[in-house]
Design a protein that fits this description.
mainly beta, ten-stranded parallel beta sheet, nine-stranded parallel beta sheet
């Protein structure tokens, strides 16, 4: 088989403060699984947007709109729900209740390392082109971020802890999403991709998400738990002291688990979960320290974009130094 061509690398807009070992893994067909995977570019990881959020026209959020700084719940909600492009700077701690709607073409970005949304969550529903960065989400009652019927979303450099249900749940035919450089700690259910085994009619051909350079710091499960999305790309994440499991592929999903660092994780990845049938999972070039070897099988569709990544053995250092709030 002839490998599909890679996409065009995303241009750098910010230089990194560190550089891990450079890798250049050739594109290859995995004969045992039938998977064909695109080639990562020969560069160290980057804070730039990567993965699925760069596809389908790309994700720019509020773009070059003049920024407005908000310090109260009423100001945050009114600006999030306004029409047109907005860049919304969150300053200090803002307490909200329930799930508050985010309109299309919005960038919501925290100021410094202390910007916090507590008590409720952000509902990215039936919209496109949304960016959420550099915010501490704490003590939410439902989800911290819910994405449904939405496309072109980038969730980056946030921290999540002590919530009720999902930290970042993506479902109901959402597509072209990247979840990158976030930290999850003191929390159970981190990330669901696809909410129901019976929703294949909406979800097949959708739910294409990239999870890269996230720090799962003692969180318990769903890192992510995947239904139907194919290909879903999980690369260069650091899993530390995970209680239940890392990645689960179910219900026709195809998940590439690549170049991750697993430390003290008995079950790094597997196929099937609960009553959900097994999906496909291909694992390559991961690094294991006091961890299980994982379960893989089946085939995964090819990755359509090029991407920058570190070798797995250097991911612990790079993610610990770069993930979470206050780093951009």
């Amino acid at each position: 088989m002839t490998p599909e061509p890679t996409g065009t690398p995303t241009p750098r807009t910010r230089s990194r403060r560190w550089r891990g070992p450079l890798i250049a893994a050739a594109a290859l067909g995995l004969a045992a699984t039938g998977a064909l995977v695109a080639m990562p570019s020969a560069n160290a990881a980057t804070f730039n947007m990567q993965g699925w959020a760069t596809q389908g026209g790309g994700t720019s959020g509020g773009g070059s709109a003049s920024a407005v700084t908000v310090t109260t719940a009423s100001a945050l909600i009114s600006n999030m729900q306004a029409s047109g492009s907005r860049v919304i700077r969150v300053s200090g701690t803002i307490s909200i209740s329930g799930m508050q709607k985010v309109a299309a073409n919005k960038t919501i970005i925290g100021v410094g390392s202390g910007a916090t949304i507590t008590g409720g969550g952000l509902n990215v529903a039936s919209v496109s082109n949304v960016i959420i960065r550099n915010i501490n989400f704490r003590n939410w009652g439902d989800d911290a971020i819910n994405v449904q019927y939405s496309t072109r979303v980038w969730i980056d450099h946030n921290s999540f802890s002590n919530g009720s249900d999902g930290a970042v749940d993506i479902k109901r035919a959402s597509d072209y999403v990247t979840v990158s450089w976030n930290r999850f700690f003191s929390h159970d259910k981190s990330m669901l991709l696809g909410h129901s085994d019976s929703n294949g009619g909406e979800d097949r051909g959708k739910l294409r998400v990239t999870y890269n350079n996230n720090y799962f710091d003692g969180s318990n499960q769903r890192h992510p738990r995947v239904r139907f999305g194919n290909p879903v790309h999980v690369f260069n994440n650091y899993y530390r002291n995970v209680g239940s499991y890392g990645v689960a592929s179910t219900c026709e999903a195809g998940v590439l688990v690549e170049g991750n660092y697993f430390e003290n994780v008995k079950d790094p990845f597997h196929r099937g979960e609960g009553s959900s049938p097994a999906g496909s999972l291909v694992a390559r070039n991961n690094h294991f320290v006091n961890s299980g070897s994982g379960q893989q099988g089946g085939s995964v569709r090819s990755i359509p974009y090029s991407y920058q990544m570190d070798s797995a053995s250097s991911v612990k250092a790079s993610v610990q130094s770069g993930a979470g709030t206050g780093k951009i």
